[in-house]
Design a protein that fits this description.
A seven-stranded mixed beta sheet has the order 7-16-12-8-11-10-9, covered by helices on one side. The chain is elongated and about 90 Å long. The protein has one domain: phage-related protein like fold (Alpha-Beta Complex). By secondary structure, the protein is of the alpha+beta class. It contains six helices and 16 strands.
Amino acid sequence: MALAEYTLHIVKGVKKSFDLAAAADILKYRDARIFTIEDTSEWTEIFNSTESMTGVTSLNETDAPAILSQEEGYTVTLSNTRFGGAITITENDMVRAKDSTVMVDKFVQRKRDNLLTENRHYFLTEIFKLYNTAFSNGTFTAPDGVELCGVHVWATGASYGFTNYTTDVLDEAGIAALEEYAGALTDASNKPMPQNFDTIVVKKGSANARSAKQIFGMNGMVPTSVGDINIYEGAYTLVETPYISTAHKLYWFALATSQFVNPLYVGITKMPSMNEPVLALNNSITSNATGYFKVGISHMPIGVYGSIGTGA
């Protein structure tokens, strides 16, 4: 078999391993509970939220109960982003390899592995913008048009809302303030809707990560690793991630994962996968790897709480 034909065959052969590894990398983050990651076949997804229902009253013996209406909330539309990259084995690569199929294998495997790393990095950087831009209105907004952590107003209850933003440092006083906030939350008709925050998200290796381990008595515990993040189980689950940027290392977040669907939504329309390699006129062999996903805030972030951590 000519070396060009062999190289084409090898590039075709790495497709399966690339596709499986790319999907496995992404799905690890589904287990971390810090996003809602779903497979979807829809090009554009529309999320319709509902809010409170009111009108229950005392009834006399002959009274018929009033028919109550379900109040409609905001509508959110998310569309796909296409992403990807390609690997090329040039004619120079093949000439450099001479007749060594072993060297060709190494060229292909090295480029495949680097492409996997780069695809994964791009995907995680994009979805973690939900955290890194949580306090700035622009990149992603909640259904009410406000940043993820800010002053929110219900669609059907303009006189009621919630402010899921603070400047508190992550310490015992900050956690006490979080729990007081959680117990005081109300819905769009001002009925109590307390949240049970159970997950803390911080920058990996930061002072916040060390503080959280001290607060929750986690020193000495061995973390569970999911991709690049560590997960410590306790009264709160602590999640450390390197994808909260160093510039935002003071940020910390609390999530109520057991009551409502996490509104930080990632919809995978097409897992990153390699396309058939193509032999070009310049005798190089190229294979594209592309994927499609949507990312946004699908519902009002009642179960998300965030702090810039400055203490002022």
